[in-house]
Amino acid sequence: MEMARTLTRWAYCLPPSLPPSSSCSFSLTRRTLQIRTFSSKITIGSNSGEDYLHLTNDELVKQCNVTTFKVSGPGGQHRNKRESAVRITHVPTGIVAQAVEDRSQHKNRASALDRLRTLLSLKVRKTIDLDGYQPPQELLQILPKVSTIRGSDVGSQIGPNNSKFALGVQSLLDLIYAVEGSVSDAAKLLGLSTGALSRLLLSDDSLRMAVNDFRTSKGMRPLR
């Protein structure tokens, strides 16, 4: 089927009427960013030709609404009296990221922008054609060295702590969507065994959840 050979880019958008204070909550660990939203829906991306993750930080910020706000902190002289927390809303997709953990607004802004890139990689899909498919460099970089199509010039495998990991995740999820959630089909295109690709998909919690959400929507069993 034609639909099985192409991937429509989707964006998970928050309703514009959702109050800023209730749009998202974040649970952070060393390796992953877990996102919980009170309300969300899937819509076709209005700017399907644009690749947000390849924009510079300045270019990406120009597409966003950036707001600051206060968060409750310890009492006494250490109470946070400044609006150091930062919330960034990506206008084209409605995706929201925020950072509140640092007393420095500058550091929170940088953290929120990094989280926005992670969310864009997880939530925004791009169209790819499976005919003569060649994985992009950023995808090759996150593949394990056992991949038969991963040349020696690619370098060491990068993981979630690398700033380029989001680019690889985006390309990997684009492929997973293109093959309708079939790990075995994706593995063949990446020169991996099904088991090796499954281990990669399960190595990061955010990536695992994104894949399993899609597989569940297709009536497939989640990866474990």
Automatic annotation (TrEMBL):
Prokaryotic-type class I peptide chain release factors domain span: 63-121
One Pfam family this sequence matches: RF-1
Any one Gene Ontology molecular-function term assigned to this protein's record: translation release factor activity
Domain of life per record: Eukaryota
InterPro entries: Pep_chain_release_fac_I, Pep_chain_release_fac_I_sf, Prokaryotic/Mito_RF
The family this protein is said to belong to: Belongs to the prokaryotic/mitochondrial release factor family.
UniProt protein name: Putative Peptide chain release factor
Species, as recorded: Zostera marina (Eelgrass)
